[in-house]
Amino acid sequence: MASSKSILAKIFAEYYLSGAQARQEGRPIAYVTAFTPVEILRAMDVVCLFPESYAVVCSASNKSQEMIQASTMASFSQDLCSYSLISFGADHYPRPPYGGLPRPDMLIATNNQCGTTFLWFKLLSQKQNIPLFIIDYPAANPNQSATRPYIEEQYKELIKFVQKHTDRNINTQELNEQIICSRKACDLWLRLHELNKEVPPPLTATEIVDSLFPMLAAKGTPSACDFYEALIEEKQAIRNENSTDSLRLLWHGYPMWFLRKRFPDCFDDAFQVVLNDYTLWWNLDYPDEQGDMDALISAYSKTYLNRTLNHKIDWVDALARDYSVDGVICHANRSCRRALADIVPLRDRLHKKEIPSVIIESDMAHAGCYSGEQVKLRIESFRESLSI
Amino acid sequence: METTQHIIARCKKLISQPEYRNEYLIRIKEKYLGIIGYFSNYIPEEIIAAAGFYPLRIIGCYEPSKPSPHSLYIPVCSFARDMYSAASSGGLSYLSQVVFPNSCDSMRVFAQMWEHAVNFPPACVLLHPINDNSNAIQYFAEVIERFAGKLHQDGGNLITQTRLKETIDTYNQTRRLLRRLYDIRKINDTFLAGSDAVALMTAGLIMARDEYNQILSQIVNQGPREIHKDRKLKRIMIMGPLMDNYGFLSKIEEFGGYIVYDNITNGSRYCDLDVEIEGNLYENIARRYLTSGPSPTLNSDKEISDQSFQALIDDLDLDGIIFINQKFCEPHVHKYLAEADILKQMNINVLMLEIEHGRVEVDERDMLRIESFLEIAGRS
User: For the domain B4-157, what is the CATH code?
Assistant: First the structure.
């Protein structure tokens, strides 16, 4: 079996070449938001590119501040989401990473993660005259009588929209296979996280975060499953049997993509993040007893950020218990308002359960919003309070 | 008979003096099953009224925030922050419940924080769609019908077809009168200043509807029929979310602007369409709300294009457009970014002002910007 590292490198290269290759082969390209039902699009031979993921790459390449500056020069407010600011800034940036993303033939946005992505894609559509399709997920519970048919109709409209702009039809066999692969990738993704229930945890939080990419770029394909299977096998093989008394932490919310390790540099073997719940947001539940469309509706309606506050708090609370954490670090990410709503209620719940927590304020991608010294000081004093 | 001047003064008091407003609402409350507050144009007030409740659009409080153990530290729009602060200091205690829209992340976060807070009036979220196609209308009609069922459970009043038709008719009457007001102001700039018109429209979101229709009818019927356009006045359209700060608008007028039209939540977007009263009423209500002048929180085919802008500009004889946005209001920032380009290409003067919702004073910088904008504004 190939190593996880080589499979990941292949997925990464294929993804960033896919735009240029699609252009050569005359295949359509769509920009999609992170929780778009890509299975439908891929079953219609559409190459899906994720501007949010590209913003992550730009941020990790230390380009965030310059790109955000470029977008604010073009009248964009600094208060907007840093992913969208980076994305718009990349258009005005002389040498963006990987040469930038190719111009798409269509834009597909959803609001099951936040309201910003839909506004961002709508603006992109208006400014560059690119056809846009928006999938509206009004409720976290697709079983509500009116919601399911409404979303189902939108999926049917999406297929018609893609047909209209590409002359391609949906391959239902391919769709079914995509869903099977997505379901399997999600199961493996969860299993990978669960390895860290062990003491000591076999994976660092950075390793898990850096393994997220195939959940976007290759979900619904066998290569994502191959990658996670290989990674799980490797980590199981080198599992450290020596138990340590380290303090186990849950990092709630987004990582900080501009940092070398994606998290502040103040963790070590005795004080480590065993779980970042953000990466589990990608673990969608595709019920296997339902038909293809129903499975997709269910999976994409119940994204973490589309759930009720109580559901989210219960979920994080359960994770803290299941992963036996000693404390929780909550990242109040300036860019994501929906995620910010959880922070204070979660802190209150953790307080009731006598689980110590600390809130640190920063941003997922905008390095200019990060104060290293201040964050370090806060985490260090949190560590001291846990050690008592 | 109450003079127009006196009516406008009363409207301004209702908007800007919380104590006066509270007294008015407490007096009103006794005649209804309760006051239901709501936060968006996508909440069908006809349904609330038909169920025997008093629908109250929640607007600014215009009072300094009292110290409160609860605060929205999240960077949501200043409107949401002000309202949260008002609720946590007991300033909205006359409400029996509130209805949140599914409009933007600020509102979504606000709703979640409201539900989490202790001692706030109970809340529900009306999950309206953001698309406006036929499936969306069907979906929204079901949501509205369920909402009607909930209100029946809460208050005991069954919403009959007859009752709903009567209520729709009352609200349609308001819309028609407001549209007439716009028509008069379009041709005659001596009738009512833009800031006064906005005060009049905003007060209607607070006042008992029969009383409001009566005063509105009186004002409209007194409106002049002759055309009067003072060429020295710069004819301005304002755009943005809820704009209840009429004092801010009067500054535009002090510098020689005439606010002839608007595209704001509590203005033309509130009254542009009626609800049909024949056929399935829930579907009619859903259709009206989803096809009315779209808020940028909606994905609509009716977005303003260069053609529709041109027609509007010609019809209104416009000299310029002022976008007045609230800080952290994402949908309207995006709307500005999309539409400013189109307008600039059409040589229309555009000014963007970003303000804090609750702040009554206009800062020096904005005054200067308004003044210089009005100096250069004009049709090329």
Answer: 3.40.50.11890
